[in-house]
Amino acid sequence: MNILPLGLAAGLIATTASADQVSIALDWTLNTNHIGLVVAQQKGFFDEAGLQVDILPYSDSASTALLAAGAVDFAYMTSLGFMSAKAGGADITALWVTMQREAGRLVYNSENRDITRPADLAGKTYAGFGSAWEDALISTMIRNDGGTPEYDTVTLGTGAYEALATGAVDFTLEVATWEGVNSELLNRKQAHFTYADYGVPDQQGGYIGTQSGMLADEPDTVRAFMTATQRGYEWAAENPAEAAQILIDNGDFPNEDLVRGSMRVIDAGGYLTDGTTPVGQIDAQRFSTMAQFLYDSGVLRDADGQPLTWPGDVSNWYDQGWMAN
């Protein structure tokens, strides 16, 4: 598997690669969100498409920033990362979305008798990750449940999960298909609230995008890469256990059961496909609704930190024309 050392990512030449060699930067350390890319690499789908693909590991430089700077040809991006960059003027276009429904959720200790509904979170302590999106999400949930959206925040990053388990904080956010699986493996007593039940739009997650210039200038390369990527994710959706083993064999996972458990949850939950929607397809309505929520909540801001105004239409933020052929 062609994964370049971290130090090489920043030194990539900021020009479009030739049709036979492309690069993609990951948004985080290798996990099941990226499984279709690894499957496409290992099953030879990229080779059959005439491509040599370098999968760049997560680094201190966000994948969205690398893409916007032209340091890579493609990037795997969080929904918030992509929409923030695009709203801020980055000339990038989404081509794909991995998760067909929201995998995030708000979690708390199930033995905490003071929490039975989101309104109960008022006055409690949240362990967070430092983004404006978190406050918009949590405040919306509390407000829509009739509570006052006032709570304390400590920024702990991934340390949030241990803090919740020890009772040092009252609640946090997690991804059901990864941290949620890990908590189950550790027998942590957790319960959760689903965002969409309390006024937060259901969203898809895990975008793959490219620079708009590459999409215009090298459509055949984009189509070849994305078609092979789709094959990889389709294969993973149809063969979750085998796909998990491929990921394990080509990564560094201290707990292999986490990878296997994650793929079981992804399969059982219909995250990659609901059986009718093509793998990777962006839902126009949900895309627009989430973008407007981020604008209206003041999450999307300009370089001076000022909230941006809803443009009225974001349909040109993505392009799935490569799916047509």
UniProtKB/TrEMBL annotation:
The keyword Transmembrane helix does not apply. Residues 1-19 form the signal peptide. It holds the Pfam family NMT1. InterPro entries: NMT1/THI5, SsuA/THI5. SUPFAM superfamilies: Periplasmic binding protein-like II. It comes from the Bacteria. GO terms for biological process: thiamine biosynthetic process. GO terms for molecular function: metal ion binding; transferase activity. The keyword Cell division does not apply. Keywords: Iron, Metal-binding, Pyridoxal phosphate, Signal, Thiamine biosynthesis, Transferase. It catalyses: N(6)-(pyridoxal phosphate)-L-lysyl-[4-amino-5-hydroxymethyl-2-methylpyrimidine phosphate synthase] + L-histidyl-[4-amino-5-hydroxymethyl-2-methylpyrimidine phosphate synthase] + 2 Fe(3+) + 4 H2O = L-lysyl-[4-amino-5-hydroxymethyl-2-methylpyrimidine phosphate synthase] + (2S)-2-amino-5-hydroxy-4-oxopentanoyl-[4-amino-5-hydroxymethyl-2-methylpyrimidine phosphate synthase] + 4-amino-2-methyl-5-(phosphooxymethyl)pyrimidine + 3-oxopropanoate + 2 Fe(2+) + 2 H(+). Residues 31-243 form the SsuA/THI5-like domain. Pathway: Cofactor biosynthesis; thiamine diphosphate biosynthesis. Responsible for the formation of the pyrimidine heterocycle in the thiamine biosynthesis pathway. Catalyzes the formation of hydroxymethylpyrimidine phosphate (HMP-P) from histidine and pyridoxal phosphate (PLP). The protein uses PLP and the active site histidine to form HMP-P, generating an inactive enzyme. The enzyme can only undergo a single turnover, which suggests it is a suicide enzyme. Belongs to the NMT1/THI5 family. Homodimer. This is Thiamine pyrimidine synthase. It comes from Paracoccus homiensis.
